[in-house]
Design brief:
Blueprint lengths: L1 H16 L4 H18 L7 H29 L15
């Protein structure tokens, strides 16, 4: 079962992401990060505000990816991600 999940997850994630349209993803990012950008003094719907929302959304996605990567490395006892699990090749 574990192998089944391990190999199907990378195939199913893009399908799940495809269920939302770009407009829906943009609206969600604006709802999540728009108020924070407005508190920084940026006028809503200005180019600076849009850049702020995009940057905040991208930073959140990168933080999520880094946490997944750290968890994977921890679970598999990987010391150096450059060489993969098990250390440098001999």
């Amino acid at each position: 079962m574990r192998i089944f999940v391990r190999f199907l997850t990378p195939l199913l994630l893009p399908l799940a992401a495809a269920c939302t349209t770009p407009a829906q993803r943009t609206a969600q990012a604006e709802a999540d990060y728009g108020p924070r950008c407005e508190k920084l003094g940026l006028a809503k719907d200005s180019e600076q505000w849009r850049a702020c929302v995009e940057n905040a959304d991208m930073n959140a996605a990168l933080a999520t990816q880094r946490s997944y990567d750290r968890e994977f490395l921890r679970k598999h006892d990987c010391i150096d991600p450059k060489f993969g699990c098990g250390g440098p090749p001999r």
